[in-house]
Amino acid sequence: MSDLKTSDPKVAEILEAEMKRQAEGIELIPSENYVSQAVLEANGSIFTNKYSEGYPGKRYYGGQENTDRVENLAIERAKELFGAEHANVQPYSGSPANTAIYFALLEFGDTVMGLKLDHGGHITHGLPIAFSGKAYNFVQYEVDKETGALDYDEIEKLAVEHKPKMIVAGFTAYPRDIDWKRFKEIADKVGAISFADISHTAGLIAGKALESPVPYFDIIMTTTHKTLRGPRGAIILCKEKYAKAINRAVFPGLQGGPHEHIIAAKAVAFGEALKPEFQEYAAQVITNARHLAEKLTEHGFELVSGGTDTHLILVDLTNKNVPGKQAQVALDKVGITLNKNTVPFDQRSPFDPSGIRLGTPAVTTRGMKEPEMEKIAGWIKEVIDNIEDEDTLTRIKKEVEEMCAGFPVPGIKV
Ligand code: DSN
Fold this sequence. Notes:
Elements: H1 2-7, H2 9-24, E1 26-27, H3 37-43, E2 54-55, E3 58-59, H4 65-82, E4 86-88, H5 94-105, E5 111-115, H6 131-135, E6 137-141, H7 152-162, E7 166-170, H8 180-190, E8 193-197, H9 202-206, E9 219-223, E10 234-238, H10 243-254, H11 260-273, H12 276-298, E11 302-303, E12 312-316, H13 324-333, E13 336-337, E14 339-341, E15 355-359, H14 361-365, H15 370-385, H16 390-405
Parallel strand pairs: 1-13, 5-6, 5-7, 7-8, 8-9
Antiparallel strand pairs: 2-3, 4-10, 9-10, 11-12, 12-15, 14-15
The structure holds D-serine (DSN).
């Protein structure tokens, strides 16, 4: 950062502080990860200088010989990675990508089914105060109260009753694997378009650790910065018959110029995910999550659905008498970062919910394995049991830093 340090020491200092925070702490937010130095370099590249409205071969500005090459490379790698017929790599992020999908395939007011936010869905899956919930007639399905898992018979019943034009199978706080085939059968039964939002698990699917919806579903969207370990952004994959509508909805329907520096970084990340070692990574993410879940359970924590099949764990802290917000703040103090989260049928507010959400994509990127998961579970227990004991928190912070020093973060030299 030598140029930045000279030209803008204030910003350089903030970036250095953030590097230190990322390197010295344990990142358990399940939607976060550490990208490689190569992804960082493409992300911070001179493509940020270039406008390229349109698509490769059909742009509205000159000087596109290199943007076309990099965008085509990202498209081809995305298709290969997921076995998809068509890929659009331009969406700025998950929410605009989901909005583009609705805009491409629905009329305002159409009936759509999506998982309720506090049951593990997303704001773009029909939250009443969000654009999705206002523009479309969303029918929200829930998880089962007893098991905390999806009840496919109930989803089928709702679909038969409401005859949605689209069914969204998308998840941001759901720890279990998805039966894509069953979802598709339900969609087919009522003539609905099937749309999978795999933002959280895309890296595990690309790494062949979880089953893919691509063979079954019409449309798939994923962000690129979670388990997929790329830059912040999104892609849309679909069957060829939807390609034209999707492309038109992304540009010019919703977006202007694509961010080609991000697209270059997406190409790099897809290239990395195509390598065999990414499959080892994906498998270890799940092994780590299962181990962490097991240890947390041994420490008396109640996990929604009883465990995990993925990278993500949702803990209901009600039995510990500690609200999610207080837990998040105390864990932040020791350098363990996770997020407060509602649990299904939560009696508390989303600003101070009953649960915490955590996951293993970032710690696995650093090379942490089962022994480290055991330590992390122990520290979480100690913090929750001694939430106001500053001495304990100070000691744990030091232990966390000592462990982290042995696991460098890609792209960060502290
Ligand atoms: N904000 C993302 C997450 O943390 O899951 C979803 O968009």
